């Protein structure tokens, strides 16, 4: 059995109904209208491309006799960027041809990139269009810094004086170089296909001395206050900074995408939804130089002003590897993060599995609650779970106000972490600690539930610091450490090769171990 995730005009995406993690236990082929396709799949999510619009298909697999009948979506037209003068040779500047094709495309139309390399300066999208990159098509970003205009972080409307957000850097409205592909205040956009979007970040201008750039570096794809967005099948790579950055967006889905960046490339997060509602990241692979997926909601100005959490997020059937964290919350979470479900995912060789990082100063709206991890496998993750309320980054991050372990007053600057539930997980070859949970003395973490979880440590584990906090404790083969947590529930949790106690608790009001 399988179910549809997305049905577009020329592509569809399905998910197998099972409890397996990312991969199916048998390879299989797709059957379209009774004809077996040559390509073999072994993942729980599969996609079909090169379909016809407004056409009926019967889809099956070689796994069983189940079939699904669908009708692809209608579209108004399909236009080819080459008809607008694009060359696609990887050297000619195709910016005007590509942008003109997008501008000229009618509502509910599709802009097609056939096989070729389309070298362009930044591109802007509009509402109600589909961008399709065929297999063998690549959009390649300019490596010239002068080709990236500066976008203001925040401006005032000339009439109403209302503040309007246009760009952001690490949780604060700041001027940034225009992202390679961007859309503002748009809706109903689809970016689909088996092609590549290459940010050319490793060309030499963005990574060396990356902290010395006057403005925030371009993202690969930046979506500002957009809604009803689907990214399907695309591969993103070599971004100058974050790859996919939806900002104050509603109803945004990433299906069967891949994101790649060099392991030592700076700030090349895979996907960072910020203050977004209804986000789906399903069947995707991330192999990046920073966090694979990071959920954010701004620093104190944004959280206090707009009070917009990142919420109702589903991450399923994904692989996260080589990043600093597989799934990260914060540290820019002043607007809160709520209702996050992660299931059937595989974390491989990331520094941390789940990482929550917040601190005093994020504010009363920085509420993290209802976080659920279920059916997760981790291999060679240094520290599978880290929840840290003393995160020390930002210019004031190492002040006494942030690092003090004294019980300070609860006020408008105090963040909150509620219920976090970890269930049905296997964590192999850990090194530093199974789990590190450190709440504030004045605002303890409300509840940590861990059930049906196995932790085992690598024989030659090396010591390290699981949490970025002042005077952090170095760990090697440590069990579960809890400090300033109200309620802890452990059920059927096992450990292999832990040094010392499997559970260490300080300032825990109630702990139940079964």
Record the SSE blueprint.
Elements: E1 2-7, E2 12-16, E3 23-32, E4 35-43, E5 45-48, E6 56-61, E7 67-71, E8 78-80, E9 89-93, H1 95-104, E10 109-113, E11 116-120, E12 123-124, E13 129-133, E14 137-141, E15 150-151, E16 154-156, E17 163-165, E18 176-177, E19 181-184, E20 187-193, E21 196-198, E22 221-224, E23 227-232, E24 235-237, E25 244-247, E26 250-255, E27 258-260, E28 277-282, E29 285-287, E30 293-295, H2 300-306, E31 310-316, E32 319-321, E33 325-330, E34 337-348, E35 352-357, E36 367-379, E37 383-388, H3 400-403, E38 416-417, E39 419-430, E40 433-438, E41 445-457, E42 478-496, E43 503-513
Parallel strand pairs: 8-10, 9-11, 10-13, 11-14, 12-19, 13-20, 14-21, 19-22, 20-23, 21-24, 22-25, 23-26, 24-27, 26-28, 27-29, 28-31, 29-32, 30-33, 31-34, 32-34, 33-35, 34-36, 35-37, 36-38, 36-39, 37-40, 39-41, 40-42, 41-42, 42-43
Antiparallel strand pairs: 1-2, 2-5, 3-4, 3-6, 6-7, 15-18, 16-17
């Amino acid at each position: 059995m399988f179910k549809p995730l997305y049905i577009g005009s020329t592509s569809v995406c399905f998910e197998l109904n099972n409890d397996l993690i990312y991969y199916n236990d048998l390879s299989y082929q797709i059957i379209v209208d009774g004809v077996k396709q040559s390509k073999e799949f072994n993942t729980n999510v599969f996609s079909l491309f090169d379909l016809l619009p407004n056409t009926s298909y019967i889809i099956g697999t070689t796994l069983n006799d189940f079939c699904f009948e669908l009708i692809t979506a209608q579209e108004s037209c399909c236009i080819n960027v080459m008809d607008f003068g694009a060359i696609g040779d990887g050297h000619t500047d195709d910016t005007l041809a590509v942008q003109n094709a997008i501008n000229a495309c009618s509502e509910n139309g599709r802009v097609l990139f056939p096989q070729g390399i389309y070298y362009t300066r930044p591109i802007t999208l509009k509402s109600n269009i589909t961008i399709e990159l065929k297999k063998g098509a690549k959009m390649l970003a300019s490596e010239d810094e002068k080709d990236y205009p500066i976008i203001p972080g925040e401006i005032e409307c000339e009439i109403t004086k209302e503040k309007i957000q246009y760009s952001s850097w690490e949780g604060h409205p700041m001027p940034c170089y225009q992202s390679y592909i961007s859309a503002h205040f748009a809706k109903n956009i689809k970016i689909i296909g088996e092609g590549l979007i290459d940010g050319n970040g490793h060309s030499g201008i963005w990574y060396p001395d990356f902290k010395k750039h006057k403005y925030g570096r371009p993202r690969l794809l930046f979506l500002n206050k957009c809604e009803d967005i689907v990214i399907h099948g695309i591969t993103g790579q070599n971004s100058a900074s974050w790859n996919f950055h939806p900002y104050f967006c509603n109803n945004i889905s990433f299906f069967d995408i891949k994101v790649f960046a060099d392991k030592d490339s700076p700030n090349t997060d895979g996907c960072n939804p910020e203050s977004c509602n209804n986000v789906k990241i399903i069947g995707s692979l991330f192999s990046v130089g920073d966090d694979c997926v990071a959920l954010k909601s701004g620093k104190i100005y944004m959280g206090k002003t707009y009070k917009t959490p990142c919420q109702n997020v589903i991450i399923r059937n994904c692989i996260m590897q080589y990043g600093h964290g597989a799934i990260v919350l914060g540290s820019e979470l002043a607007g809160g993060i709520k209702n996050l479900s992660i299931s059937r995912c595989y974390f491989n060789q990331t520094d941390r599995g789940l990482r929550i990082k917040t601190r005093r100063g994020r504010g009363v709206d920085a509420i993290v609650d209802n976080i659920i991890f279920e059916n997760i496998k981790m291999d060679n993750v240094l520290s599978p779970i880290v929840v840290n309320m003393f995160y020390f980054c930002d210019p004031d991050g190492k002040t006494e106000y942030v690092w003090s372990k004294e019980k300070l007053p609860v006020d408008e600057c105090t963040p909150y972490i509620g219920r976090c539930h970890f269930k049905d997980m296997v964590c192999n070859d850990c090194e530093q600690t199974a789990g590190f949970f450190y709440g504030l003395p004045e605002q303890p973490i409300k509840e940590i539930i861990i059930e049906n979880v196995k932790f085992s440590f690598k024989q030659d584990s090396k010591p390290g610091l699981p949490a970025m906090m002042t005077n952090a404790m170095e760990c090697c083969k440590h069990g579960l450490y809890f400090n300033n947590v109200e309620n802890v529930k452990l059920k059927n949790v096992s450990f292999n090769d832990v040094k010392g106690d499997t559970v260490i608790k300080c300032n825990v009001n109630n702990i139940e171990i079964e």
